[in-house]
Each structure stands twice: as C-alpha cells, then as structure tokens.
Design goal:
three-stranded antiparallel beta sheet
C-alpha cells in the first residue's frame, strides 16, 4: 500500500502551469468550535500543541491501512498525516497534505484542519481524531504537563475551491499579511529573505499539487531571477517573534522557534506570482505549515 501510494505521489497524471493548478486547486476544511478554559495559553505554539494531541489520537485510533472503494489497500491516516513523505526530482520532498490553524472568535476557540487533494479521503479519520484529542485534553501551555479538555460546541466540514481570479490587469503591488509567523531558513538558520518567501511558496504548492495528481511546470530559475532583480520588498511592517515548542519524542526538551509576523509589501511585475499568492491563502507560506505557521 505504501509503495503504490508513494508511486502515485511521485508520478502525477499531468503537468500543469501555475494558473492551471490554481483553477483545479481543491481542499476540505474541518473546523471545530469549542470552549477553552481560561488557563489555556493561546500563543503561536497552540496549533502545535493541538497537532500533538491530534497525532496521539491518530496513532491510537488509525494505525492500520484502510480499504479503498476499489477494495485495494491504502495507507492509514497515521502514515498520511505523520509518516515520512517521499521525494521527487531527487531531492524535493512532497509536502504533508494539511495545515492547521487556531483562532479565537468571541467566546469560542476555532480549530481548523485543512486537507488538500485526495487527502480528503481521510477526512473522517482526521475529524474523529481531532475531536478525540480535544476531549482527551490539550496542554495548557508550551511544555506544560497539565492538560485540559475542550468542550466541542460545533463541527463544520466544507469543501473548497478557489474563486475565479479576475485578470491581473498589470497588478504591481501586493501586501501579504501574516497572522502567524512565517519561517524561512537557509542552511538551517532562520533568515528574513522576502524573495525566498515567494519562491518557497511556489515550491510548497508544487509539492501539494502531487496530492491532486498534478505537477507544476514553470521556469523556476526565471522566477528566481525575476524576484531578485525586478521586485521590491518592504519589510518595515514585519517583526520577529520567538517562542518554543516541545515534541512528542522529546517532551522535556524545548525546541526554539522564530518567525516574522506583520505585513510584507511587494512591488513590481507580479503577474507570474499571482497564482502562488492566491493559492497561498489556503496552504500557508514558509516552513512548518503543519504547525500552524505561515
């Protein structure tokens, strides 16, 4: 099952342009509204804590392969959401097919997991494990051992596609507003490289497109040259933030985290990047999107 699944991801049915992948981009969002205890720290580490609890329940509940409609065996939710992703083109790793986000709206905490492409096949398992994790309890703070159960008030599921984007008409200015930190690294070191945000977003979308049985065909080197030479970036609206998280494998060892929030303004010939910017609103930008970043 795993071998066949990896082959499917690495050998897409068709190669499409950025504009074409924008037109067929699809996803399903599982949104859970719940009552959170006052002691729950709602910081940049909360999505990672929710993901940790979600992962524990997926390991407990959905550790085995499942049968598809055709009767063939498919990998279980554990492998899809937390397993090692295959690589394509010799080095680029296929992105995990989801993002997670948390947001307070009035009195309720909204927790959303978005699944891309055929990862929607495992949406029921994703929802069941997330509800189980909230009942079981989420750590009140980063690195904390005390957990609290979150009472689920409502659950919503919504299938989504991107609205048709108007012709760009020579758009030359854009503002990217990051509500959660985006993280870009060079040789493992966090850097503030605005052009890498755009190019990394394109690479991320290219990896996620494999979950739609597509590959993205574009001149990546030409896009890098365009970003480096013809775009102007204003980073004055960004600020760096730092926090820490803990992993399931090393619960007592804090992992330093950092990123940038705020507004990144871009000016110049944006047309080649507009599909990536439009899609990026659904799939986050930068690294560690499955922890709620970007």
């Amino acid at each position: 099952a795993a071998a066949a699944w990896g082959v499917r991801l690495c050998t897409p049915a068709a190669s499409v342009s950025p504009s074409q992948i924008e037109a067929i981009w699809d996803f399903e969002t599982i949104e859970i509204m719940c009552e959170a205890p006052p002691a729950l720290e709602e910081d940049f580490g909360l999505p990672a804590r929710v993901r940790g609890g979600w992962g524990e329940c997926i390991y407990e509940l959905f550790n085995s392969p499942v049968a598809s409609v055709s009767g063939s065996s498919l990998p279980g939710a554990k492998e899809v959401f937390f397993g090692q992703m295959p690589t394509f083109l010799g080095k680029q790793q296929i992105a995990k097919p989801y993002v997670i986000a948390t947001r307070r709206r009035e009195q309720l905490l909204h927790i959303a997991v978005r699944l891309f492409g055929f990862a929607r096949f495992w949406a029921d398992e994703a929802e069941d494990a997330l509800i189980a994790a909230l009942h079981k309890g989420i750590a009140l703070r980063n690195g904390g051992k005390v957990r609290a159960s979150l009472r689920v008030v409502d659950v919503r599921r919504e299938y989504g596609i991107l609205p048709r984007r108007p012709e760009d008409n020579g758009i030359r200015n854009a503002k990217l507003i990051f509500e959660t930190p985006f993280s870009v690294r060079s040789s493992g070191i966090p850097v503030l490289d605005p052009s890498a945000v755009l190019l990394g977003l394109g690479a991320r979308i290219s990896g996620l497109a494999r979950w739609m049985d597509m590959s993205v065909d574009t001149e990546w080197k030409a896009l890098k040259k365009l970003a480096d030479e013809e775009l102007q970036f204003d980073i004055s609206g960004l600020q760096q933030v730092r926090w820490s998280r803990h992993s399931r494998n090393h619960p007592t060892r804090p992992i330093p985290m950092s990123g940038f929030i705020g507004t990144l303004s871009i000016a110049g010939r944006l047309s080649p990047f507009l599909p990536f910017l439009t899609i990026g609103e659904t799939c986050h930008a930068g690294g560690q999107a499955t922890l709620g970043l970007g």
